[in-house]
Amino acid sequence: MRTGYDLELVHLTKRYGETVAVRDLNHVFSPGSYVCLLGPSGCGKSSTLRMIAGHESVSDGAILLDGADVSHLSPAQRGTAMMFQSYALFPHLSVRDNVAFSLRMKGVDKDKRHARADELLELVQMTALADRLPTQLSGGQQQRVALARALITQPKVLLLDEPLSALDPFLRIQMRAELKKLQRELGITFIHVTHGQDEALALADEVVVMNNAVIEQAGPPREVWGAPRTEFVARFMGGHNVISLDGGKVALRADDVRLGAAGLPATVTAVEYQGATVALQTRTEGGEEVLAILPEDQFFTAPKSPGDAVTLAWDEGRLHRLQA
Predict the structure, then answer these.
(1) Could you tell me the pLDDT band of residue 1, with boundaries at 50, 70 and 90?
(2) Pair 203, 257 in one domain
Protein backbone atom coordinates (compact mmCIF):
# COMPACT_ATOMS: atom_id res chain seq x y z
CA MET A 1 0.00 0.00 0.00
CA ARG A 2 1.32 3.40 -0.92
CA THR A 3 1.55 5.98 1.87
CA GLY A 4 2.40 9.62 1.49
CA TYR A 5 2.37 11.94 -1.48
CA ASP A 6 4.79 14.66 -2.46
CA LEU A 7 3.50 18.15 -1.86
CA GLU A 8 5.54 20.92 -3.44
CA LEU A 9 5.20 24.70 -3.41
CA VAL A 10 6.71 26.33 -6.52
CA HIS A 11 7.27 30.11 -6.45
CA LEU A 12 4.08 30.36 -4.40
CA THR A 13 2.99 33.98 -3.92
CA LYS A 14 -0.08 35.65 -2.41
CA ARG A 15 -0.86 39.34 -2.80
CA TYR A 16 -3.68 41.33 -1.26
CA GLY A 17 -3.59 44.54 -3.31
CA GLU A 18 -0.17 46.08 -2.64
CA THR A 19 0.55 43.79 0.31
CA VAL A 20 2.56 40.62 -0.27
CA ALA A 21 1.39 38.04 2.30
CA VAL A 22 3.45 35.14 0.90
CA ARG A 23 6.54 35.78 -1.20
CA ASP A 24 7.92 33.27 -3.70
CA LEU A 25 7.90 30.15 -1.52
CA ASN A 26 9.70 27.07 -2.83
CA HIS A 27 9.46 24.03 -0.61
CA VAL A 28 9.00 20.26 -0.85
CA PHE A 29 7.20 18.53 2.04
CA SER A 30 8.36 14.95 2.63
CA PRO A 31 5.61 12.37 2.05
CA GLY A 32 4.02 11.08 5.25
CA SER A 33 5.69 13.65 7.51
CA TYR A 34 4.36 15.86 10.29
CA VAL A 35 5.24 19.45 9.35
CA CYS A 36 4.71 22.53 11.51
CA LEU A 37 4.52 25.96 9.88
CA LEU A 38 5.72 28.21 12.67
CA GLY A 39 5.96 31.96 12.98
CA PRO A 40 4.52 35.12 14.50
CA SER A 41 1.10 36.54 13.58
CA GLY A 42 1.01 37.96 10.06
CA CYS A 43 4.07 36.06 8.81
CA GLY A 44 2.13 34.30 6.02
CA LYS A 45 1.74 30.81 7.51
CA SER A 46 -2.09 30.75 7.53
CA SER A 47 -2.28 32.23 4.00
CA THR A 48 0.09 29.47 2.84
CA LEU A 49 -2.08 26.79 4.47
CA ARG A 50 -5.28 28.25 3.00
CA MET A 51 -3.75 28.33 -0.50
CA ILE A 52 -2.79 24.65 -0.17
CA ALA A 53 -6.37 23.91 0.95
CA GLY A 54 -7.92 25.90 -1.89
CA HIS A 55 -9.66 28.37 0.43
CA GLU A 56 -7.44 31.17 -0.84
CA SER A 57 -6.53 31.85 -4.47
CA VAL A 58 -2.91 31.73 -5.64
CA SER A 59 -1.54 35.04 -7.01
CA ASP A 60 1.54 33.43 -8.58
CA GLY A 61 3.25 30.06 -8.67
CA ALA A 62 1.88 26.54 -8.25
CA ILE A 63 0.98 23.87 -5.69
CA LEU A 64 1.92 20.38 -6.85
CA LEU A 65 0.39 17.34 -5.17
CA ASP A 66 1.70 14.00 -6.35
CA GLY A 67 3.18 15.77 -9.39
CA ALA A 68 -0.05 17.48 -10.54
CA ASP A 69 -0.76 21.20 -10.21
CA VAL A 70 -3.83 21.46 -7.97
CA SER A 71 -3.76 25.23 -7.45
CA HIS A 72 -6.79 25.85 -9.68
CA LEU A 73 -8.93 23.00 -8.34
CA SER A 74 -11.72 23.43 -5.80
CA PRO A 75 -10.97 22.32 -2.21
CA ALA A 76 -13.03 19.13 -2.69
CA GLN A 77 -11.13 18.12 -5.83
CA ARG A 78 -7.55 18.49 -4.73
CA GLY A 79 -6.99 15.65 -2.24
CA THR A 80 -6.45 17.84 0.81
CA ALA A 81 -8.68 18.34 3.85
CA MET A 82 -8.61 21.17 6.33
CA MET A 83 -9.42 21.23 10.00
CA PHE A 84 -10.32 24.72 11.17
CA GLN A 85 -9.50 26.41 14.45
CA SER A 86 -13.21 26.91 15.21
CA TYR A 87 -14.07 23.22 14.41
CA ALA A 88 -17.18 24.55 12.54
CA LEU A 89 -19.44 21.62 13.46
CA PHE A 90 -23.12 21.66 12.45
CA PRO A 91 -25.04 22.20 15.72
CA HIS A 92 -28.22 20.41 14.56
CA LEU A 93 -26.44 17.23 13.37
CA SER A 94 -25.30 14.35 15.56
CA VAL A 95 -21.59 13.58 15.89
CA ARG A 96 -21.97 10.68 13.41
CA ASP A 97 -23.80 12.85 10.86
CA ASN A 98 -21.23 15.63 11.24
CA VAL A 99 -18.46 13.19 10.40
CA ALA A 100 -20.41 11.67 7.50
CA PHE A 101 -21.47 15.03 6.04
CA SER A 102 -19.07 15.24 3.08
CA LEU A 103 -20.01 11.68 2.01
CA ARG A 104 -23.68 12.68 2.16
CA MET A 105 -22.85 15.60 -0.18
CA LYS A 106 -21.24 13.10 -2.56
CA GLY A 107 -24.41 11.01 -2.60
CA VAL A 108 -23.03 8.02 -0.65
CA ASP A 109 -25.94 6.05 0.82
CA LYS A 110 -26.72 6.28 4.51
CA ASP A 111 -25.55 2.81 5.66
CA LYS A 112 -22.23 3.16 3.85
CA ARG A 113 -21.46 6.66 5.06
CA HIS A 114 -22.46 5.81 8.64
CA ALA A 115 -20.27 2.71 8.60
CA ARG A 116 -17.30 4.81 7.43
CA ALA A 117 -18.08 7.53 10.00
CA ASP A 118 -18.14 4.88 12.75
CA GLU A 119 -14.68 3.62 11.68
CA LEU A 120 -13.28 7.13 12.03
CA LEU A 121 -15.03 7.78 15.33
CA GLU A 122 -13.36 4.62 16.62
CA LEU A 123 -10.00 5.95 15.38
CA VAL A 124 -10.44 9.17 17.40
CA GLN A 125 -11.98 7.31 20.40
CA MET A 126 -15.43 8.88 20.09
CA THR A 127 -17.60 5.82 19.39
CA ALA A 128 -19.59 6.16 22.63
CA LEU A 129 -20.65 9.71 21.80
CA ALA A 130 -21.74 9.14 18.16
CA ASP A 131 -25.39 10.11 18.80
CA ARG A 132 -24.72 13.31 20.74
CA LEU A 133 -24.99 16.86 19.43
CA PRO A 134 -21.87 19.09 19.32
CA THR A 135 -23.19 21.28 22.18
CA GLN A 136 -23.11 18.22 24.46
CA LEU A 137 -19.35 17.79 23.92
CA SER A 138 -16.29 19.30 25.58
CA GLY A 139 -13.77 21.29 23.51
CA GLY A 140 -11.44 18.31 23.23
CA GLN A 141 -14.29 16.03 22.11
CA GLN A 142 -15.45 18.57 19.50
CA GLN A 143 -11.91 18.63 18.20
CA ARG A 144 -11.85 14.86 17.73
CA VAL A 145 -15.11 15.05 15.77
CA ALA A 146 -13.68 17.80 13.54
CA LEU A 147 -10.62 15.63 12.98
CA ALA A 148 -12.70 12.57 12.04
CA ARG A 149 -14.78 14.73 9.69
CA ALA A 150 -11.66 16.03 7.93
CA LEU A 151 -10.26 12.50 7.56
CA ILE A 152 -13.41 10.86 6.12
CA THR A 153 -12.56 12.09 2.60
CA GLN A 154 -9.27 10.10 2.84
CA PRO A 155 -7.10 13.14 2.06
CA LYS A 156 -3.52 12.85 0.81
CA VAL A 157 -2.65 15.81 3.04
CA LEU A 158 -4.38 17.00 6.23
CA LEU A 159 -4.12 20.73 6.97
CA LEU A 160 -4.55 21.95 10.54
CA ASP A 161 -4.94 25.64 11.35
CA GLU A 162 -3.90 26.25 14.98
CA PRO A 163 -5.98 23.22 16.00
CA LEU A 164 -4.99 23.26 19.67
CA SER A 165 -5.26 26.96 20.47
CA ALA A 166 -8.77 26.74 21.96
CA LEU A 167 -7.85 23.98 24.43
CA ASP A 168 -6.58 24.35 27.99
CA PRO A 169 -2.83 23.64 28.49
CA PHE A 170 -3.23 20.13 29.94
CA LEU A 171 -5.59 19.00 27.17
CA ARG A 172 -3.35 20.62 24.55
CA ILE A 173 -0.43 18.40 25.59
CA GLN A 174 -2.66 15.31 25.57
CA MET A 175 -4.02 16.15 22.09
CA ARG A 176 -0.48 16.76 20.78
CA ALA A 177 0.42 13.18 21.59
CA GLU A 178 -2.78 11.93 19.94
CA LEU A 179 -2.28 13.96 16.76
CA LYS A 180 1.26 12.61 16.41
CA LYS A 181 0.09 9.02 16.99
CA LEU A 182 -2.76 9.44 14.48
CA GLN A 183 -0.42 10.87 11.85
CA ARG A 184 1.92 7.89 12.25
CA GLU A 185 -0.96 5.41 11.97
CA LEU A 186 -2.43 7.06 8.86
CA GLY A 187 0.93 7.69 7.19
CA ILE A 188 -0.30 10.87 5.48
CA THR A 189 1.28 14.31 5.55
CA PHE A 190 0.01 16.64 8.29
CA ILE A 191 0.71 20.36 7.87
CA HIS A 192 0.00 22.14 11.13
CA VAL A 193 0.08 25.93 11.57
CA THR A 194 1.08 27.17 15.02
CA HIS A 195 2.75 30.14 16.68
CA GLY A 196 3.88 27.96 19.63
CA GLN A 197 7.51 26.86 19.52
CA ASP A 198 6.96 24.12 22.11
CA GLU A 199 4.07 22.72 20.04
CA ALA A 200 6.21 22.66 16.88
CA LEU A 201 9.18 21.04 18.64
CA ALA A 202 6.95 18.39 20.24
CA LEU A 203 5.07 17.43 17.08
CA ALA A 204 7.06 18.05 13.95
CA ASP A 205 9.37 15.91 11.84
CA GLU A 206 10.08 19.19 10.06
CA VAL A 207 9.70 22.75 11.34
CA VAL A 208 9.25 25.49 8.72
CA VAL A 209 9.87 28.90 10.31
CA MET A 210 8.23 31.81 8.48
CA ASN A 211 8.77 35.53 8.93
CA ASN A 212 7.73 38.49 6.78
CA ALA A 213 6.12 36.32 4.06
CA VAL A 214 9.17 34.08 3.48
CA ILE A 215 10.63 30.86 4.90
CA GLU A 216 13.56 31.80 7.17
CA GLN A 217 14.63 28.23 7.92
CA ALA A 218 13.29 24.70 7.57
CA GLY A 219 14.57 21.41 8.94
CA PRO A 220 14.23 18.86 11.75
CA PRO A 221 13.21 20.49 15.06
CA ARG A 222 16.53 19.75 16.74
CA GLU A 223 18.45 21.40 13.92
CA VAL A 224 16.24 24.51 13.72
CA TRP A 225 16.32 24.97 17.50
CA GLY A 226 19.97 24.04 17.98
CA ALA A 227 21.50 25.66 14.89
CA PRO A 228 19.43 28.73 14.00
CA ARG A 229 20.64 30.39 10.79
CA THR A 230 19.40 33.92 11.41
CA GLU A 231 18.91 36.26 14.33
CA PHE A 232 15.13 36.04 13.85
CA VAL A 233 15.12 32.22 14.14
CA ALA A 234 17.46 32.30 17.16
CA ARG A 235 15.24 34.78 18.99
CA PHE A 236 11.91 33.29 17.91
CA MET A 237 12.77 29.68 18.79
CA GLY A 238 13.99 30.82 22.21
CA GLY A 239 16.70 29.27 24.34
CA HIS A 240 19.40 31.36 22.66
CA ASN A 241 21.16 34.63 23.33
CA VAL A 242 22.06 36.80 20.37
CA ILE A 243 25.28 38.67 21.16
CA SER A 244 27.50 41.01 19.15
CA LEU A 245 31.06 39.68 19.17
CA ASP A 246 34.03 40.56 16.90
CA GLY A 247 31.89 42.80 14.71
CA GLY A 248 29.35 40.03 13.95
CA LYS A 249 26.29 38.50 15.58
CA VAL A 250 26.44 35.07 17.24
CA ALA A 251 23.89 32.82 18.90
CA LEU A 252 24.73 31.16 22.20
CA ARG A 253 22.46 28.73 24.01
CA ALA A 254 21.37 30.01 27.42
CA ASP A 255 22.27 26.65 28.98
CA ASP A 256 25.85 27.01 27.61
CA VAL A 257 26.43 30.20 29.62
CA ARG A 258 28.09 29.72 33.00
CA LEU A 259 29.47 31.99 35.70
CA GLY A 260 33.28 32.03 35.59
CA ALA A 261 36.30 33.88 36.93
CA ALA A 262 37.24 35.24 33.50
CA GLY A 263 34.95 36.29 30.67
CA LEU A 264 32.32 38.93 29.94
CA PRO A 265 31.45 41.26 32.87
CA ALA A 266 27.71 41.68 33.46
CA THR A 267 25.16 42.65 36.12
CA VAL A 268 22.30 40.38 37.25
CA THR A 269 18.91 41.97 36.44
CA ALA A 270 16.53 39.13 37.40
CA VAL A 271 16.57 35.65 38.90
CA GLU A 272 13.85 33.07 38.27
CA TYR A 273 13.72 29.71 40.00
CA GLN A 274 12.43 27.05 37.57
CA GLY A 275 12.78 23.84 39.55
CA ALA A 276 15.64 21.86 38.04
CA THR A 277 17.19 25.07 36.71
CA VAL A 278 17.53 28.75 37.59
CA ALA A 279 17.25 31.43 34.92
CA LEU A 280 19.64 34.31 35.46
CA GLN A 281 18.93 37.40 33.35
CA THR A 282 21.97 39.69 33.03
CA ARG A 283 23.01 42.86 31.23
CA THR A 284 26.53 43.34 29.86
CA GLU A 285 28.48 46.59 30.01
CA GLY A 286 27.59 47.06 26.33
CA GLY A 287 23.89 46.96 27.26
CA GLU A 288 23.10 43.51 25.80
CA GLU A 289 20.74 41.12 27.60
CA VAL A 290 22.25 37.67 28.22
CA LEU A 291 20.29 34.82 29.77
CA ALA A 292 22.09 32.04 31.65
CA ILE A 293 20.23 28.83 32.54
CA LEU A 294 22.09 27.20 35.44
CA PRO A 295 21.50 23.84 37.14
CA GLU A 296 19.77 24.65 40.44
CA ASP A 297 22.37 22.88 42.63
CA GLN A 298 25.15 24.87 40.95
CA PHE A 299 23.29 28.18 41.40
CA PHE A 300 22.54 27.60 45.08
CA THR A 301 26.19 26.86 45.98
CA ALA A 302 26.79 30.60 45.30
CA PRO A 303 23.38 32.29 44.83
CA LYS A 304 23.14 35.66 43.06
CA SER A 305 20.64 38.50 43.41
CA PRO A 306 19.61 41.34 41.08
CA GLY A 307 22.32 44.03 41.12
CA ASP A 308 25.21 41.56 41.68
CA ALA A 309 28.21 41.73 39.37
CA VAL A 310 29.02 38.44 37.59
CA THR A 311 31.37 37.22 34.89
CA LEU A 312 29.81 35.23 32.04
CA ALA A 313 31.80 32.45 30.42
CA TRP A 314 31.26 29.77 27.75
CA ASP A 315 33.22 27.41 25.53
CA GLU A 316 34.22 29.08 22.26
CA GLY A 317 33.03 26.02 20.36
CA ARG A 318 29.46 26.68 21.52
CA LEU A 319 29.16 30.02 19.69
CA HIS A 320 27.12 29.79 16.53
CA ARG A 321 27.60 32.38 13.75
CA LEU A 322 24.41 33.88 12.33
CA GLN A 323 23.80 35.02 8.76
CA ALA A 324 23.26 38.72 8.38
Answers:
(1) very low
(2) no
